[in-house]
Amino acid sequence: MSNKLSAEEIPILLRDYRLTFEPAIDATYSISAKNLLDAEQALVYLQTIAPFFQSPSLLVTASLFGKRYSVLTMASAFYAMSRYDKGLQVAIENIWVEAEGHAKPWLPNVRFIDHMVSEPTTDRNAWRDEVLKGIFADNLAKAWQSLTKISKIPKTILWENTAIYVNWLYETKIREGANEQEINRLQEDYDYIVNQAPGALFGEKKNPLKKYCGPKVKIKESKHPIRLRKTCCFYYHTSDETNDYCISCPKIKRLV
């Protein structure tokens, strides 16, 4: 069964989840996502956006762009899946990264070519698998493979970048305003994504998120428990300060 987002459902995705229906006025910083799979076009694009990150290398640019791209791919799709029971068409061939050059911080939007959505019938679990396959195996896995080939960034970093936003979206963002029934569905979807979903849905042999979604721990640098990263995203390379690591960075020497 296919349908469209309703007039009541669209505004929140436009406002809070990086969705847009309009191409950027200046297409310099936009790209059809499928072109990320072409090494030459992807390289040119990474070089074009590197100044937004003050990035010193292709590897750093790939990591920081990967963070934004994972959010674009997942945010509106997860919200639609878990709050609306609707599946956006997130395969890499169906989306554009739309961005303007003047925005600070640089936060691109996602534009869909085909706006039709799927809905569960009798088996929501099977439907959910198809939605997740579109997000991960048919999009992010392909993008990460290409970025790894171009920049030599380990896929483990890209998948941990992804996991961080899966955690944030399901534990915080898309819970905003949810009722009890929606919270239960959100939790069920989250548990499945990070613990039970098979590797095939991610285009991998094993679920690549599971090892990055464990329990939070208390550290002296934070008032609240956090998850410590297992890989470094290289954000510190964009800072003017020496060793300006993220609070969860594995490069920080911590007392045991």
UniProtKB/TrEMBL annotation:
It comes from the Bacteria. One of its GO terms (molecular function) is catalytic activity. Residues 63-173 form the Aerobactin siderophore biosynthesis IucA/IucC-like C-terminal domain. InterPro entries: FhuF_C, IucA/IucC-like_C. Signal peptide: none annotated. Residues 229-251 form the Ferric siderophore reductase C-terminal domain. This is FhuF 2Fe-2S C-terminal domain-containing protein. It comes from Lysinibacillus fusiformis.
